[in-house]
Design brief:
elongated; 51 residues; mainly beta; single chain
Length: 51
């Protein structure tokens, strides 16, 4: 069992996992998102209303 939490003082995410002697804090590796500058062309003529 584990949980992931953001530590704002350090500006990063950690995975916390219980052990027999306490809780282990494992830093989560963050790679740059490949879709940060991803753009989508919007076809104004093909708009569809979905309810």
């Amino acid at each position: 069992m584990f949980f992931v939490n953001f530590v704002p003082e350090e500006g990063r995410w950690y995975c916390f996992a219980p052990t027999a002697t306490g809780v282990q804090r494992i830093p989560v590796s963050m790679d740059a998102s490949p879709f940060e500058a991803f753009t989508v062309a919007v076809d104004e003529q093909a708009k569809e209303v979905v309810n």
